[in-house]
Amino acid sequence: MTDRRPFEPQLLRSGAQAYSSSKAAGNHATRLLAAELGPMGIRVNAVAPGMTDTDISADVKSDEQILGMIIAQTPMGRLGKPEDIANAVIMLSSSRAGWITGQIVQAGGGLML
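Predicted structure:
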């Protein structure tokens, strides 16, 4: 079994407060817009991607210790791929998700930060 210890505090980087606050604001806006636009038949959802293998994660991928810790703590045992995130958006956009609104779908392989 893979060791799934919590992140070490030293791995928190500067700017975490601003980043986390902006995520919380986006989540709240998703819920408020869903309530406001729902009566018009408009659904509002969001996708919260986890660590995804893209150019934006290059600094994390270049640090083997941090990358290893993230992968070890992700139940799916890997970084996400761009198509993983795209598939979540496609699912939410489809008619099969017609009764889903105001949700933030965590597309992070099971890791929640």
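Summary: Strands lie at 46-49, 104-107.
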